[in-house]
């Protein structure tokens, strides 16, 4: 969550407005989809290691559950805002709908700086959040997951606190848990894997040769590192020419070895200084002459200021909200094919859904079954969105709008069938 220029919730609403117009959505349904159904704002008193009590602020936003229980991560961040959480909960609603899993969208957050907290303080904060928010959570109501600065250990504390509150092990109330506590195999790389499956399908449609295609990745955390490696593994080739993280980027026109950079970052804490590569800035990375660009770090990095300089043929948005609406228009005009965030990064929530299914019937799948089912879901989702793009050729829409049309009509249909609108 960087210093972002535009309010993300206003962006999410503007994107919905565009889709509502194209769908001729009735005014009542449109208005009902513009706002979250429920928001809970909580105060969390936590005893810190120095013996004093510090009060944190937390949120849980349940944007829409017409298609099933809300689903969405919990973020721990010093600059967390309710509007960021609202925007992300809206995007989760469209994400679960576009991959057609029977879930809705939600998101949570706590304003805190986990880098300055001990493990004990983090555990007490995580448990305090569940004591407050647990009353609206559950596998049939709302099931959170890890997100920015939260992880499997935090999910373990949270599912345990829920157990003490309710007296039962309801593992599906939260996902992204450790494997030993009901987590699913394949969750760790699911986001990147789903994005690469989308790239594979896009290449087929666009006639791009995956073996010779060059690619660059902004961000080298969970999503970026796995994308770097899986791109070559799944597509059977491709040349990685640049990657970056918060400390800057590296470039080598002759190609970089993804696994060697992962090892280098593990050893040194950054991608910079990788042997044989030239240093570049994050801004330079975005406008490199590559076939494929994966933004996998921050929001609003492709803007009106640099969109005209983007040379990639395909942008696969692993990050949430990396492209502003102004940039979208420029990219569409310039013929850049954008695989939008809530489709490109939906692999994570899809495997989270698989985790809930496995928890529910108390039987765990092997890794091959997870990959096979993820591939099927992502391929179907991409194909459905691409079909919408073709169907709406006369409206000159981009893939983001096509994905909105698919997702919004599914949520609107569920709301209508239930008699909500
Ligand atoms: P992460 O924290 O593991 O990694 C983030 C990376 O971005 C790090 O390498 C960091 O150094 C880098 N970064 C930070 N500031 C930067 C800057 N100014 N310039 C360039 N790089 C910078 O996070 P992640 O889980 O990989 O998530 C990355 C993006 O993908 C986020 O937008 C997240 O919401 C989205 N996403 C992730 C998942 C998932 O399952 N991990 C699922 C859906 C969406």
Jot down its keywords.
12 strands, alpha/beta, seven-stranded mixed beta sheet, five-stranded mixed beta sheet, Rossmann fold, binds nicotinamide-adenine-dinucleotide, 45% helix, single chain, 14 helices, globular
What are the SSEs and their pairings?
Blueprint: H1 8-23, H2 27-34, E1 38-47, E2 53-64, E3 70-77, H3 82-98, E4 105-111, H4 119-133, E5 142-146, H5 152-166, H6 190-206, E6 214-218, H7 222-235, E7 239-245, E8 248-251, H8 258-268, E9 278-280, H9 282-286, E10 292-295, E11 314-316, H10 325-333, E12 337-339, H11 341-344, H12 347-360, H13 367-391, H14 399-418
Parallel strand pairs: 3-4, 3-5, 6-7, 6-10, 10-11, 11-12
Antiparallel strand pairs: 1-2, 2-4, 7-8, 8-9
The structure holds nicotinamide-adenine-dinucleotide.
Residues 191, 218-224, 244-246, 282, 296-298, 318-320, 345, 348 line the site of nicotinamide-adenine-dinucleotide (NAD).
